[in-house]
């Protein structure tokens, strides 16, 4: 049997940030795109900025699905092109369709994600964890046999994801982290949508500080 591995493709793009001016400002951003599988088949977690680079990393392996952690543009903007290149289906939680449509209009994802939905790739199970807060339809994907959780923009090294939009909720993201992620084993590797990874055990002690600071 081929060894199952986790690969990261770092892609670059821009996001628009409203600083209170006449028009939003564009800022550069790097995203982590995760590929899980072996030499024969993979699943892809998020589809950011550069469909060509992601498809090149996949190569001739079968893509069983493109799993999106949430609907923000920088996580989904390459999804439609990538799905076409790889003949793969796009999965997104329905609560984030309003964000998806800002990027892709009437072209809908193929399959709705739900809490506890599972995916098998090369004998490894990934389980969907609905973790609202950053966005209403944010999810993470836990792979216990790999001692890994793909956390999207829900949990980072040093804190939770941003909750600055009217559809976001700081209490909700804290509840998601507390009830969905922190029960995972402490040695679980957290692989986020941006930046360096961490572990569940590394982040658990900071919860009270996050609550005190309100982020």
From TrEMBL:
The signal peptide here is: none
InterPro entries per UniProt: MBL_Glyoxalase_II, Metallo-B-lactamas, RibonucZ/Hydroxyglut_hydro
Which superkingdom is the protein from? Bacteria
All copies of domain Metallo-beta-lactamase, residue ranges: 30-194
- Which Pfam families does this UniProt record tie to the protein? Lactamase_B
Q: Which CDD domains match?
A: metallo-hydrolase-like_MBL-fold
Transmembrane annotation, as ranges: none
Protein known as: MBL fold metallo-hydrolase
Q: Which organism is it from?
A: Leucobacter manosquensis
């Amino acid at each position: 049997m081929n060894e199952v591995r986790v690969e990261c493709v770092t892609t670059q793009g821009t996001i628009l940030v409203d600083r209170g001016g006449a028009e939003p400002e564009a800022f550069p951003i790097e995203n982590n795109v995760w590929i899980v599988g072996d030499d024969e088949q993979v699943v892809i977690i998020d589809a950011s900025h550069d469909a060509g680079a992601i498809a090149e990393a996949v190569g001739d392996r079968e893509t069983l699905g493109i799993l999106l952690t949430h609907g923000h543009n920088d996580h989904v903007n390459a999804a439609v092109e990538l799905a076409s290149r790889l003949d793969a289906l796009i999965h997104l939680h329905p609560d984030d369709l309003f964000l998806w449509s800002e990027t892709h209009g009437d072209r809908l994802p193929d399959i709705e994600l739900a809490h506890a939905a599972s995916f098998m790739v090369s004998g490894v199970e990934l389980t969907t964890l609905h973790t609202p807060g950053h966005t209403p339809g944010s999810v993470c994907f836990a792979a216990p046999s790999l001692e890994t959780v793909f956390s999207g923009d829900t949990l980072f090294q040093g804190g939770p994801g941003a909750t600055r939009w009217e559809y976001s909720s700081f209490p909700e993201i804290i509840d998601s982290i507390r009830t969905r992620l922190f029960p995972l084993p402490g040695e679980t590797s957290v692989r986020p949508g941006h930046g360096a990874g961490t572990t569940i055990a590394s982040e658990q002690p900071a919860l009270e500080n996050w609550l005190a600071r309100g982020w």
